[in-house]
Amino acid sequence: MRSLTKTGFYISKKIGKAIADYNLIEDKDRILVAVSGGKDSLSLLKLLAERRKWAPIKYELIAMHVETDFRCRACVHTKKLKEFFKEHGVKYHFEKIKIRDEKKKSTSCFWCSWNRRKALFLAADKLGCRKIAFGHHKDDIIETLLLNIFYHGEFAAMNPRQELFGGKITIIRPLCYVEEASTRKFAKESGFPSQVCRCPNSDTSKRRMMKKMIGSLEKSCRHVKTNIFRSISRVKEDYIKIKDERR
Fold this sequence. Notes:
Layout lengths: L5 H17 L6 E6 L4 H13 L7 E10 L9 H10 L3 E7 L11 H19 L3 E3 L4 H15 L8 E4 L4 E4 L7 H11 L15 H13 L5 H8 L16
Parallel strand pairs: 1-2, 1-4, 2-3, 4-6
Antiparallel strand pairs: 5-6
Helix pairs in contact: 2-6, 5-7
């Protein structure tokens, strides 16, 4: 752990707790790590690679970057990502997909996400990986919960561990206990590529609205993120038995 910064050590401990709490990584696992090129996925890959040096179990990592024809405004070049993967001794795989509507010259968040996931699932099967690690952190989970409540009328979030296709693929989120501020600080300390990938629609997304709302609430309740996060596992069913008025 000497090669890690103080922030890196802190995040690694959080990752270790998440792994233990949700059994995210097991001996001889072959894990496909989804790397967008942003601070969160790069932080996750670096720390998972670092943990292999001293972890009591053995696991293999394969980094995967999905490149679309709807490029972000500050995308990390493929060359930089390859250098990053080699530096950390991680095998890698690149996949190009088309998601852009040629008539509108754009795409929707749903269509982009759906196709990226599909590419990851297909690659995981081809590469023999039964687990896919995403760089979703605590803030992502909280924002997703609020988005689903406000815009879909349902109480649903991102699970730290989620089995799909009858258990053939398992999604894991080792950063589930880590707040975005920590990955942002770690990325800066680690000198990650400055041309960080950024969604072209990020400035106007509903997720950004959730960030602003939570930031405002934190001014009067500094534990608001933790409280929302804990609520996912502390549901009092006796107090939420309400009939769907649409029926």
